[in-house]
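1st attempt posting a full record on here, be nice pls
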Amino acid sequence: MGFFVSRYLGLLLCNIAIMKHLWVILFVFPLIAQDINKHNISLGLFDDKTGFSFVSYTYDIRQTEMDEFFIGGGTMIVAFTGSAGWKHYYKKSKLSFYSVLSGQGVMHMGFSGFMPTASFALEYNLSKRTQVKIGGTGLMLLGGTSGEDGGDTGVFPFVGLNFRF
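the predicted structure (as tokens):
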């Protein structure tokens, strides 16, 4: 009886050791094997995809040759922006011209609301994974929570570095 229990526990411990390696195969390997260039981190003065942010992250849900559909978020330390939208390239080369249409949820200490935006920009590829982008964004803030009437429109420039991975 003692030999049987000892042998059974030995096999059980062996199976646990195998299972520890199996989770790496099942969960970590698919993360590495995914398509590259779907993740973007942008640093700079505002952003075309996430609006009011100095640091932002976006994930491309779907990519084609000339289009990207994305979700993301950005921060200006005291403000946060969550966004979803579409980026379309008109010319894709070392110096690309594109537009972005996005809907953004904005939260700040003084207000929060929905902000549809349209951006036009130039993107210069420094390397395969690094781009400099410069352009302008038009926006309309809907539904403010401060003492204002809740709506505002504007145009602002942006410039930044984008890193894809």
